[in-house]
Amino acid sequence: MSWNRASVIGAGLIKMGELFNQSYEQMARGAFDAACASVDNGFDRSSIDAVFVATQRGTLWGQEGIGGNTVPSAIGLNGVACTRIENACPSGSDAFRVGAMAVASGVYDTVLVIGVEKMRDKSAEEGLLARAAGGHPVYTRGESAPVLFAPFATRHMHEFGTTKEMLASVAVKNHHNGTLDPYAHFQYEVTIDQVVDAPAVCSPLGLLDCCPQTDGAAAVILTTPERARDHTDSPVHIAGFGVATDHPYLHEKSSYVGLTATVEASSRAYEMAGVAPGDIDVAEVHDCFTITEILDIEDLGFFEKGKGGIASAEGETSLTGSIPVNPSGGLLAKGHPIGATGIAQLTECWWQLRGQADQRQVAIENGFALQHNVGGRGSGVSVVNILTTND
Amino acid sequence: MAELQLTPRELDVGIVAVGAATPVLRLAVGDVNAAWGRGGGRGLLAVCRSDEDTLTLAATAARRALAAVEIGPATIGGLWWGTSRLPFAEGPSWSTLAAALRLGPAVDGAASTGSPHAGVEALLAAADAVRAGRVDTALVVTSDAIRPALGSANEVAAGAGAVALLIGTQGAARLDSVVGISEPLIDRYRGDDESETRDTYDGRLVREEAYLPLAGEVIEALGMHPESRWSVADPDGRLGSALAKKNRLDTTASAPLRASLGDLGAAAPLAGLVAALAGPGPAAALAWGGGRATALAVAVDSAVPGAEEALGDLRSVGSPATYDQVLRARGQLRATGESVEMAIPPGSAMFVRDQREVLGLLGARCVECDLVNVPPSAHPSCPGCGGDKFDLAELPLAGTVQTFVVNQTMPAPFEAPLPLIVIDLSDGSRIQLQGADDGSTLSVGCPVELVLRRYTIERGVPIYGWKALGANQVEASE
């Protein structure tokens, strides 16, 4: 039996991109408005008891000490309880989990979970790339984001014969899906050759193996399953979730062909939801780099370890494949506004389960969608949420 | 100059082992001249990569001297280091080198600095410490890697390198006697507020009134056998041959090194002596700089351990570099713009906590499950078993590649391509380090050796740590 003790009644996001003319506050307001407008039977904003806000990098927009008070004021909810959740790339998906637990506890009836990230108020060099100078001054020096994943590509290629073309097939698929998603940052197709021949970013990964730096915001409204019936005839319930951690240094990983945190987090989520990987109809997974999606679809149990590259190349993860992955375009095409990413993925799952995904709608047979993020130093934290339309 | 009687004093200290190191880059003198619109110029200059400096060269040479006789750091009583220019104008230069050599917190010694004469000053201080019974075995390191003033004659003279001697009461060779002289004369110099070393004001003046007469005095006073093999400090590439001709010195061992590496400054006297240490016979060295000339007599009974390898290291061809590459490596050609700062400023508590661990490449070996955890201060709990009892372990400086990447997209002050490598060390422990070259020869499973390098300079503080070099690259570049 699934957990089903909290439900999503509304979800929405703003068009992702380099939103140079929108402030952090304006993006938050846009996402909140979209979520409110999505509630089938209308929504009274004053019914929100608490806000959970996910922002990963306050440092990228000049407010290093950002706390929970920033967002309610910006979205017209001044005075409402608000807490900021920071948990690396899974910040948004973890805020969602915390919001669900807050509702299930009975403390709050209705909560807003909102992810907002301003990535491009700083130049690329002083933005996420500056991560290269963070952490340990010697042992992790130079460890910008692709360094967390590219060593796994090197090793996956070495052990399983995974090719650059197989990695490229992930980018080709997700860019295609992005052209069908009006919210995606990138709206163009790429070819295998374009991906393989793109300039090197962090060998063996090239430019089109990497997600962009994207501004964005997304929001969901959660309430109890009972109250959800008042708002909609087709609520989506939270079937289960899982969080797991792993060691922060790359040199202390037990494997360089998989991410232990993802394996553990998904195992906990499957158990809580009472499902197996084969029951999942659609998945929104963390494809910050092409290799990451290949690791994910193995670590989440969709494919045997080592077979993810071939499965991708053979179209198993396309919109019509055996397990459609990242129909929204994923981080590679939709973008990766870190705190907002998980919420945006959950919004896509919500649309897919309710049959509202237009041209990118996939077949829903069992009524389960999975959302996944992994990140942090050494990819040491992963969150998996499973949504369902089954009561 | 007034007439004076110079008398050599006896040293009688043994040379136990020798090691040497040169930096990676080689710059053609002709390329520097061409950049300034001058024609001609022969020979090469050894130049540091941006992650090498006088300290990293000193550490490599010292480690090789110790390896030549398989003497562990525990038996070293003191470290004497001579270099024209320390990494810190004021700061923990000497103690940083001592920690990188794993010499332990109680080690004795000192740094001599301020001119190319500093190398022999360090050697004499160490020899006197051995003679006095203050230490049994002393490690002497002489090294130089100055930043010469742009467009100066010094720019086509300055090389970089290091030579280390292990000395004690006995040895395959003997420091026999020494004699020195000084006059307050200016040759190459650097003001207290200046970052680059200037050339002499008047080369002819230095030649006629300083170098030739002072060097001649000490050479004559030392009274060597005519067949002695001489190492002669040669600041401009011409003075050495003039001195040799005038005093009928055999400099056939040291002159070729001067032509292929440039003036090694504080390391020059010992570098030129390395060839002589490889076989029996009398030898001598002339040190010069800071208004001082010192001549040193050496008697070689049999080949000094490490001498052949050190000669090979001094003769390594390195990697050719263009003038602009050298300017970038020396920090004399910089892009305008902001540079990304470290998350943790040097001098902060984290550096206090883990500097000895990082410099000495220490790990914490779990007494329960034997897993080695790096760095120790970040691991109060063993990632393997959760245990909390550890023994500090000195990690081996060799291993194989588990996996790697080459980062091509780096903000300043980083330079691409930058390899980052997860390494399985030969004792079974694992570590992540930067690569010390462009990573083009790396592959999964290939062997690597670790070398001390300078990771960055921030707020004036050089940050040192170990890097990995593909084993097939080690010989070619060192």
How would you describe this structure to a colleague?
- Helices cover 31% and strands 17% of the residues of chain A.
- With 391 residues, chain A is α/β, with parallel strands linked by helices.
- In chain A, helix 2 (70-74) links the parallel strand 2 and strand 3 (81-85).
- With 478 residues, chain B is of the alpha+beta class.
- Chain B is 26% helix and 29% strand.
- Chain B has a 9-stranded mixed sheet with strand order 5-4-6-7-1-8-11-10-9, with helices on both faces. A 5-stranded antiparallel sheet of chain B has the order 18-17-16-19-20. In chain B, strands 3-2-12 form a 3-stranded mixed sheet.
- In chain B, a hairpin with a 4-residue loop joins strand 17 and strand 18 (430-434).
- Residues 474-478 of chain B have low confidence and may be disordered.
- Chains A and B meet through helix 4 and strand 5 of A and helix 11, strand 16, strand 17, strand 18 and strand 20 of B.
Tally of helical segments of chain A:
12
Number of strands of chain A: 11
Number of discrete helical segments of chain B: 12
Placed side by side, the strands forming the largest sheet of chain B appear as: 5-4-6-7-1-8-11-10-9
The radius of gyration of chain B is: 22 Å
Task: Give the overall pLDDT of chain A as a whole number.
Answer: 96
Shape field of chain B: globular
Features:
heterodimer; A: 391 residues; alpha/beta; two-stranded antiparallel sheet; 12 helices; 11 strands; 17% strand; globular; B: 478 residues; alpha+beta; five-stranded antiparallel beta sheet; 20 strands; disordered C terminus
What's this entry about, in short?
The complex is a heterodimer of chains A (391) and B (478). Chain A is of the alpha/beta class and 391 residues long.
How does the SSE layout of this entry go?
The complex is a heterodimer of chains A (391) and B (478).
Chain A: E1 7-13, H1 24-37, E2 50-54, H2 70-74, E3 81-85, H3 91-104, E4 110-117, H4 150-160, H5 164-179, H6 192-197, E5 200-203, E6 205-206, E7 216-223, H7 225-231, E8 236-245, H8 260-273, E9 282-284, H9 290-299, H10 308-313, H11 330-333, H12 338-353, E10 368-375, E11 381-388
Parallel strand pairs in A: 2-3, 2-4, 9-10
Antiparallel strand pairs in A: 1-7, 1-8, 4-7, 5-6, 8-11, 10-11
Helix pairs in contact in A: 3-12, 5-9
Chain B: E1 9-21, E2 25-28, H1 29-35, E3 44-47, H2 54-68, E4 78-83, H3 93-100, E5 108-113, H4 118-131, E6 137-144, E7 161-168, E8 173-182, H5 203-222, E9 229-232, H6 239-247, H7 255-261, H8 268-277, E10 281-289, E11 292-300, H9 307-314, E12 319-320, H10 323-329, H11 349-359, E13 362-366, E14 372-373, E15 390-394, E16 398-407, E17 418-425, E18 430-434, E19 447-458, E20 461-470, H12 471-477
Parallel strand pairs in B: 2-12, 4-5, 4-6, 9-10
Antiparallel strand pairs in B: 1-7, 1-8, 2-3, 6-7, 8-11, 10-11, 13-14, 13-15, 16-17, 16-19, 17-18, 19-20
Helix pairs in contact in B: 3-11, 5-6, 8-9
